[in-house]
């Protein structure tokens, strides 16, 4: 089928040589075809490896055998739903692309990014599966390592499955090209609720940074590990700094060596992240030592001055001939001078200079860049961004004024916005002092700073000040709300902007930091709803226990086993007592048994269910648990036992298994009579039916699977003896069961705790993407630069869509496979290329004469 499509597209290519008009579409179709085939090939190859693996280990001769069998079974079960979601996202993704005003198609949006990430993950998984197949039985074969790698990637695939599922659901409710589901707080809340069930530790363990290219990966891994060890420092007693430092270094080492612990730690620490921790970690770049190091390695400049904009009224000329007086910002902190940095490669006439040896001056530049730094609204300063600002100043040959606006949570919205526009007006009045004639003024900012650059232009427009000539918003946040979007799902695995930190920044900036009591209550409600929907509450599970890496001795034994006739994976029991009894082979191989009767999932729910938000993803069967780092420490001992015999465990687990079936039946009967009364939604019912069929209808096949999973210390399953645990879902107990009305009431209760936020969000300036038309019309050219692997990708795209819909000049540039914050990172060719591209764009914008051309074009 796919082959015939390729043939068709080749034929179209051939035809296009005759008919030049058909060149464009045929190339696109061909590319898409190739992309789709790449996915199909990946799935096919993985299935092939899994089939072989399942056959090899179907005898379940020992614990390692069982573990391999479990992990292959789990992958096998995951592939189908992942592939279904992938196909559907693949179909719909292009509808959300941005088409530049000049007609160029920008192939980027959160859906596409999720597909890229999925592809990367599948490739990694395939790599480890193939490596395992190739090395098995070889001299240097390490069974534990293989198992750990395959397991880690399979667990991440579980997370991806859930994310793709939600993304797919989002696609069905969002009318293209709308990527955010803003305006529906309820739905956002529910989506956020269900994302709690993604095992995020899987993304931060062995798989950390899997989505990035080889150059970027180690940098982001380093930063994530630094964050994990900094947490230990931050929490520890600050009495003895040396002891503290050594301790965090040791912890850093530990997190490199033990990926599982790292994963759990990062997931835990970024889940309910205190804004003060994020602030402290992100402000590491403010340390004198770091600042000095930056100065040493960066471009040297003649001027790097810190100035203060006094808190006095500023009167500026307005565009209609009059003048406007701006009062200094007052909210939250009262009147205060605002700190700014002036960076200039050459000392220019008029510029202040307090350095040691005065260099010769050069005439004022024609351009000026006013820069706003990023830092999630809560951290960083012009100094922490000086590394690239110094280069900019040299390459663009113009001075840069970087604004140190006040930070949240001490100074929430609108303080920083007021400061930015105030400094802008002050700069208009002090161009000569800044060393410029001001012929070309550019506003530029990254991240939170990108947001300020757009909002400042909007404010200038509203106040009728002279507008900047262009705006450069690098990966900006443009929707200040917790609305979900496909790219925002990336924050579930992002090393720089994890979901918990993003949400804390949001609360800090909008001035809605919830009290501890409110947070506690929100969590209680979350747990109640999830339990009622049948999710295994992550925090109630035992820690994830990674397979123990083998010792060299084990490896050698592994090597010797090669000569055996059976393709066994050696797991040398420590003593004879621990030798596992050989299991009789199951009646059918699990793989064969499950063919055709695999727990196939219903399609994503139609969320337009009579206007009711339904339980997104409630039928997902994946295993869910979120271990706690503290618990994990306790289990370090147990971790060593994973490769040991399961003799003692067998009896209790087997009891658990029969209990499982019992409870399954009981609950199933109860459900039949109660289902309607409870007013469950269609999706819920489907889920129930499915779980019922898991219970009885497919007794033979699921029995195999359940047996395979519960009967060993599975690397997927925590040693959880809860009866009723099936595929990470469980039938809610009597106490956990809630009626739909009760769930509604709980949702209402949580929504009420966001009331304040709602008031703030109605401000027309807080989210530029949703600002009224009159505030956006008449803005100068806005250049939006986004990264394809950035949780805020959709924010940038939606801003461009909005401006285009108002016929505003806008460009959208996508930096492929780069992460958020790329301007602050350095050291790889990919980063250098992206950096050079940004410079080239700004250089063009600073050229005197370009504006005149634009204007005359407009007039004509
Ligand atoms: C599934 C649903 C999801 C819902 C999500 C809700 C989304 C809410 C949306 C909007 C609300 C608020 C948005 C806030 C946006 C923030 C954007 C924003 O401003 O993001 C920036 C935050 C700082 C940072 C991470 C960054 C870039 C570079 C980073 C720096 C690189 C090196 C720096 C290290 C500290 C150096 C350490 C050296 C030491 C010697 C070890 C590091 C990591 C500091 C932090 C920055 C991006």
TrEMBL record:
MF terms in GO: monoacylglycerol lipase activity; sterol ester esterase activity; triacylglycerol lipase activity
Enzyme Commission identifier(s): 3.1.1.23, 3.1.1.79
The protein's annotated pathway: Lipid metabolism; Glycerolipid metabolism; triacylglycerol degradation
Protein name: Hormone-sensitive lipase
Domain Alpha/beta hydrolase fold-3: 369-510, 734-823
Location, primary (coarse class): membrane
Annotated GO CC locations: caveola; cytosol; lipid droplet
Subcellular location: Cell membrane; Cytoplasm, Cytosol; Lipid droplet; Membrane, Caveola
